[in-house]
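Example 3.2
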Amino acid sequence: QVQLVETGGGLVQAGGSLRLSCAASGRYAMGWFRQAPGKEREFVAGISWSGVTRVYADSVKGRFTISRDNAKNTVYLQMNNLKPEDTAVYYCAARRQDDGPRGRLETYDYWGQGTQVTVSS
């Protein structure tokens, strides 16, 4: 069983930045998802095991960056120029499948407990 632990959430003003971290041991492709109140969980960003392949939701392209440090078993989500609509619980997810579409929730095998990100206007 893989345990995923997200850290780094918090309250920030619009235009500010936060960096989320997710600790996960093992050889997995990783993704970040988010869920706002009353909405479905949605894909934010995904990264292959090697870190070479990175994909983003259109809503965060140019503002968010996903990266990983396999020596530290950690995946990061750098979030810049945050907007109130980015407010959500952010979840880290891991999957054994390293290829194929990265935005589909059902392809991920393990999930973290989530961390709250709140962006004030």
